[in-house]
Amino acid sequence: MNEETMNEELTTMTGKEHRAVLKRLMSYTKYHIPLLLFTGFLVLLVTAAEVISPLIVRSFLDNHLTPLSFEMKAVLVLASAYIGLEIGKFVVWYFQLFFFQKIALEIVQRIRVDIFSKLHTLGMRYFDKTPAGSIVSRVTNDTEAIKDMFINVLSTAIQSLFMLIGMYVAMFSLNVQLALYSLILFPVIVGLIIVYRKYSSKFYRSKREKLSQLNANISESISGMSIVQQFNQERRLIRDFEKINKDYYDVGIKNIKFNALLLGPAIDFLYAIAVVIILSYFGAEALIGPVAIGTIYAFVNYFDRFLEAIFNVMERLAMYQEAITAASRVFRIMDEKEEVPEQHPEEDAVIRDAKIEFKDVSFAYDGEHNVLKNISFTALPGQTVALVGHTGSGKSSIINLMMRFYEFEHGDILIDDKSIKHYPIEELRQKTGLVLQDSFMFYGNIRDNIRLYNTFITDQEVEEAAKFVQADRFINSLAGTYDHKVIERGASFSSGQRQLISFARTVVTNPQILVLDEATANIDTETESLIQTGLRRMREGRTTIAIAHRLSTIKDADLILVLSKGEIIERGNHAELLAKQGVYHSMYQLQNNGMDLDADLTV
């Protein structure tokens, strides 16, 4: 993660931003209003039970225990009422918690679908600058924090609000003067909550960011494990991980110390003050006349529950801060503007002949430094145009623009004399087949990896495509053949076998345009000889743009473009470029170990 992104993550939200995130988060509850109202009613019932139960005990103490009047019927009524109230409270409490958790899970499910859907609309620039582990952390850990907020914070906040109101109503009904005295603690409680919210937000924002860095480090290490072990980088990566893990630990310890100071001890101290106020008041009253023991019990009990509600709110405030921080990170992805290039499809825009033309195209990944400069060429229907050049010359950038992975600002790319921007993206994807140097395989089986779960592609078409590129030779030797299990990223197959499956995946869709990005780079000589015939058959009747490092594989191309630093410096067919004795001639001679080129010059 770059420094700018990290600083942005660690910036404390303003009050306005905080409220905006909360408002947006709560907007997801609009799909659950009826169930929320019903659950709120259940909370009200639980609160009523909490308020009434001390009054039953008070009645027993003042009317029966103190005067030693134990009329069996009256005592049994009070006992039955108390037990029945507690049982009813527990039953209602069960359904209250169940419905709150159900709502929370459904909300988080919707948020996860929203963010996952958004990720698939983002342009490649976003994934170029954002570590995969950080993205995974937002989709999993951050949404989990949001779920915890809805389960614990929302239910606790509603219940505590009802509890606070109920407790004070009960206290005022018992003794107005003492209830007013107890309000002295209210400004202290409010101040405690404000201080806690102010400082805990910083800790939790930092904690979420450290967790994101931790996940990014783990993801990168696992993805590149073969390189890590090959170059003996284990110790360095362990040191880096230990540092990030220690930072995460330090932030967690700071947060624990802060919570330990302002949660339990502070609330207990307030409770002690409240007890002193209550006992002092009733002590003074006892000097004047008799004091009702039940009223003392009820007041102490109510204030205990009142402060318990405050404690629950402050304890859940930690989860709330964490959830708001997590939600802001999730919404930042949802608000990301780096989306896939926008199309402006025209009516009846259909690729028919597959003529491709680049007209003075310039492009920069960062918007400033051009990696392509005034690229112009034409690939007529059925022709093959090959792109060659040293690493960084701009070959893959041409492919990226043609596939609409990135937006270009200067020049235009035409297909059948119509701007590529005016075709529906579905039309472009359907009519264009892409084969990359590194073939990606999904977990499943070979058959599904070839048709990519497209149910319109039959098993027969899958097998014909594999046979067409001669992948059937090794597939038929596997246990289960086309149903052979593919583990993650196809690790059990050789690079050549994965590439053959990638070829079959492209052929099965019968595209009109072929884009080959170093498609034979990872294939051994024997495998390459098997698929060269298949490649020539694939190119027949199709317009092909091919990147190649092995110049021997594109000798029959209709047009070869030699690129250097984003510019076309030579163009022509194989024989014409050899005759020029320029850069292409040098590259070809180098690959052929200085062999006599007379035979090639006469081609």
UniProtKB/TrEMBL annotation:
One Pfam assignment: ABC_tran
Membrane topology: Multi-pass membrane protein
Residues of the ABC transmembrane type-1 domain: 37-322
The keyword Transmembrane is assigned to this record: yes
Classification via SUPFAM superfamilies: ABC transporter transmembrane region, P-loop containing nucleoside triphosphate hydrolases
InterPro entries given in the database record: AAA+_ATPase, ABC1_TM_dom, ABC1_TM_sf, ABC_transporter-like_ATP-bd, ABC_transporter-like_CS, P-loop_NTPase, Type_1_exporter
Transmembrane segments: 33-56, 76-100, 150-172, 178-196, 260-281, 287-307
Protein's recorded name: ABC transporter ATP-binding protein/permease
Single GO MF annotation: ATP binding
Localization terms from the record: Cell membrane
Residue ranges constituting the ABC transporter domain according to the UniProt record: 356-590
Coiled-coil segments: none
Keywords: ATP-binding, Membrane, Nucleotide-binding, Transmembrane, Transmembrane helix
The species this protein was found in: Listeria floridensis FSL S10-1187
Domain of life assignment: Bacteria
